[in-house]
Amino acid sequence: MSSFLGSLTGSSGSSSPSSDMTARKEAFKENMRQQMAAESAQELFSTMTDKCFMKCIAKPSTSLSSSEETCLDRCLERYMETFNLVSRVYISRVNKERPV
Questions:
Q1: C-alpha 90: how far from its chain's center?
Q2: Total Cβ atoms within 10 A of residue 38
Q3: I need a labelling partner for 84 at 20 to 30 A (CA). Which of 2, 22, 39, 100 fits?
Q4: Is the Cβ–Cβ distance between 68 and 52 less than 8 Å?
Q5: Digit-coded pLDDT (tens) for 3-56
Q6: What stretches of 1-100 adopt beta strand conformation (E)?
Q7: How far is CA 88 from CA 3, 37, 60, in A?
């Protein structure tokens, strides 16, 4: 991160100011994309955990019964399969609607 911040404040020598600015903008955009992806993954995991816990754990205790483990395993698997399917369809639709 310090090298990223340093690149925002200093010049990189022989490159032109506009190409240097473009490179810094692209680095910033990529950094933001990575942060947003990490936040989305965290939110997905949290939502998935909450929903499956509510569905599968009737009486919380210090350990899980085998039926609770099976329920959680199946719930998490179905949730991820559904998320992946919806994501693929969404991306396909966005790509079809994108102007050529």
A1: 15
A2: 10
A3: 100
A4: no
A5: 554 444 444 455 577 888 899 999 999 999 899 989 988 999 999 999 999 999
A6: none
A7: 36, 16, 35
Take residue 47 and report the two structure tokens written for it: 């939502």
DSSP secondary-structure letter at 10? Answer: S
Cα–Cα nearest to 4, from 35, 33, 36, 31:
31
Contact 80, 52 (CB under 8 A): no
Quick one: tokens of 74? 């199946």
Write the CA distances from 20 to 7, 30, 33, integer angstroms: 9, 15, 20
Residue 44 to residues 12, 26, 53, 79, 95: CA-CA distances in angstroms? 39, 27, 14, 10, 23
Structure-token pair, residue 62: 């210090």
Q: Residue 11's pLDDT is what?
A: 47
Q: What is the pLDDT of residues 43-92, one digit of tens each?
A: 999 999 999 999 999 899 999 999 999 999 999 999 999 999 999 999 99
Six-digit token string for 5: 């911040």
